[in-house]
Design a protein that fits this description.
about 150 residues, alpha+beta, globular
Length: about 150
Amino acid sequence: MSALYMDSPLGRIVIGETEGHISKVSFVDKEEETPGESTPLLRECAAQLGAYFRKDLRAFDLPLRQEGSPFQQLVWQNLLTIPFGETITYLALAKRLGNVKSIRAAGTANGRNNIAIIVPCHRVIGSGGALTGYAGGIWRKQFLLDLEKGGLLF
């Protein structure tokens, strides 16, 4: 995997590429991976993330791939259909998957998403609007939701 680090309003982000696909976007406190050679795809992903933070981009156009079970893949594909600036609950996500009893499994799959921001797991919230669980921290989830709803500008 090739990696590129970028600074963002949320701190340092690592972007990973595997075999011509973005395979990782995550927040880092320290650089643990050897970046390797920057590729055009990594630079394009960083440019699109920069445009997103400036509110010049609402939808990403990048080849994505992350390893996961068929159920996880289904959850991640459903996350990509949540419109910019909107949220759904974990229950609504489970309903989209066709089984309200899958709410816990859907939440677990949501939490295993390795491509933060682009696969918008931050748009899934608890019932009653509660901000629950986000690998990057609840404050980052709140920031991303505020950014998309028009509350922030960079």
